[in-house]
Amino acid sequence: MAFVAEPGPARLEDIRGKVAIVGVGESEHSAASGRSLHDMTFAAIDDALADAGLTPEQVDGLMFSGQSVGQLTVESFRAHYGLKQDIWESGKGGAFSFAATAAYHAHAAMAAGEASVILNVHGTDWASQNAADVGGPATAHLAEEMKANAEVVFGFIPQPVYFAHVARRHFELYGTMPDQLGAIAVNSRRHANGHPGAVMRDKLLTLDDYLARKPFIEPLRLEDCCLISDGACAYVMTAADRARDLAARPVIVEGVGYGGAIEGIHFAMEPDFAATPHRFSAPGAFAMAGLSPADVDVLAVYDPFTIVALMAIEDLGFCPKGEAGRFVEGDRLAFDRGRARGGLPFNPHGGMLSHSYLLGINHVVELVRQLRGEAANQVADAEIAVYGGFSGVDAGTLVMRRA
Which DSSP letter does residue 113 get? Predict the structure, then answer.
């Protein structure tokens, strides 16, 4: 089915146990670098194919973000590798919520005989664009006609302004405090410090450091906001019954869910300002998997701001609505404080706050490595992982298990 971001959950066919992720790869992640999006993307693809023990000639499916300018196409893929084979393509992949739901569309292509080895890939050069003052993440919002006329004229842009309002609303409704947002920022930075691929691996952060910084858009501080990065990631999918013959240990897709936000892209129109569409995407994914949040060993969510991460934890079902502030306090989100110790290992690579702003596809790469037991900040005995993808207009939930 084609996903349309209508309010509420989508009804999805059960694909439990039918799709495997068999290779993951990434380029170097950095601040403004001047590297081309093309070069970074193919570095990630080469890494993912080598991980899977596959060659470009074996790829017959390609998924990318149809919403992002400059992403990989079938034509550029063929030209780069000198290929001529037929390749199925879909713009319903890449990052955001679609890093979660790509497996659903890949299964449909495999079931129809249209593809058997499918790459999902996404890259960004927004850090270099920002440095050159030619683009960046606010560009699409500025170009959207309704936003330009109903929000931008009142100063309701860019994204930190949106989510400062959201945070203030959450504070007022539920008593959330700045140090609770700070717990997420500090945990993310600690994980980045232990991850060799993280942009912020050398930048330490304590809660005292966080609280000492003056908010720049009340109540958000600098560390409440994600990075702007250059980099790319890719992962390879195939049918689960084929995966056992490939080089890497497969990770099996157990559940996928999708849901549309009520307000779409117009944040000022949201009637429930302190909630996310994760509340629509998560129940179906867990039901498909036959699991609950209590079964999850490691969680990664799209985290453009600490308040989005906080709300995602609630809306995915890991604690009651309004209680995430207390839930995340201290070291509860640390990778080395697992479920047996009452924790929830969260964004163990550092997320978009401290690892890299790859719009969530890097989160899936990290979770695959966690389930294989190959991660830098390895969660002990990780068997079930969840990615919560988000774009504002919608959310996707991906449940995976160790093979």
Answer: T
Q: Across the chain, what does the average pLDDT equal?
A: 92
* Sign of the C-alpha dihedral computed for residues 352, 350, 91 and 37 taken in this order: positive
Which amino acid, one-letter code, is at 218? Answer: E
Max Cα–Cα distance, the chain, nearest Å: 59
Q: Which uninterrupted H or E stretch holds 223?
A: none
The mean pLDDT of 304-325, rounded to a whole number, is 97
State whether residue 58 is helix, strand or coil.
helix
Q: Which of 71, 56, 66, 47 is nearest to 123 (CA)?
A: 71
Q: How many Cα atoms are found within 13 Å in the side-chain-facing hemisphere of 158?
A: 12
Centroid of chain to Cα 397: 10
**Predicted model pTM:** 0.95
Tokens 């084929």 belong to which residue?
242
Task: Output the pLDDT for position 202.
Answer: 97
The 3-state DSSP class for residue 122 equals strand
Classify 129 as helix, strand or coil.
helix
Backbone dihedral region for residue 290 (phi beyond 0: left; psi -120 to 50: alpha; all else: beta): left
Q: Which helix (H) or strand (E) holds 179?
A: helix 178-193
Residue with tokens 């890259």: 123
Tokens representing residue 322 in the block: 């309004």
Best CA proximity match to 360, nearest among 351, 350, 369 = 351
27, two tokens: 């380029």
